[in-house]
Specification:
131 residues; Eukaryotic RPB6 RNA polymerase subunit; 82% helix; RPB6/omega-like_sf; DNA-dir_RNA_pol_omega; DNA binding
Length: 131
């Protein structure tokens, strides 16, 4: 039965890939509340979509435009998420860099203090040797 429907669909749409994309878009529309354009008896939305395409009651150009718009929205959402993630990542790098800089300056201060103490010890040792 499904083979017959698919063959009828392919008489209107010359590419199996395009058929799958258009049928999936129509199923998406049906799942989100669109009304079927053919009468059906308790069929699943996939079967309804294929029967609608086979009966040539749908405008394939409109379906294709819906697919393109849905893909654009998905890509834009992905880009926004990636930009947000990248912003958070760069903020965390800046925080890490500032932390590292603070830590390095603290270590330099400690090193300078240690060097000062060593110099004082050297002076004290020299004073004792001279005495």
């Amino acid at each position: 039965m499904a083979d017959v429907i698919i063959e009828k669909c392919l008489s209107h749409i010359n590419n199996r890939f395009k058929l799958v994309v258009l049928a999936s878009q129509r199923v998406h529309c049906l799942n989100t509340g669109a009304e079927p354009v053919i009468t059906h008896t308790k069929s699943k939305n996939t079967t309804i979509a294929l029967n609608e395409i086979a009966s040539n009651k749908l405008d394939c150009h409109t379906l294709f435009n819906l697919v393109v718009n849905r893909c654009k929205k998905s890509i834009e959402a992905t880009i926004d998420i990636n930009k947000k993630s990248l912003g958070e990542f760069s903020d965390s790098i800046e925080r890490t860099d500032s932390f590292d800089n603070e830590e390095l300056s603290d270590q330099e201060d400690n090193l300078n203090n240690d060097q000062d103490l060593l110099c004082e010890d050297d002076i004290n040792i020299e004073d004792e040797l001279n005495l």
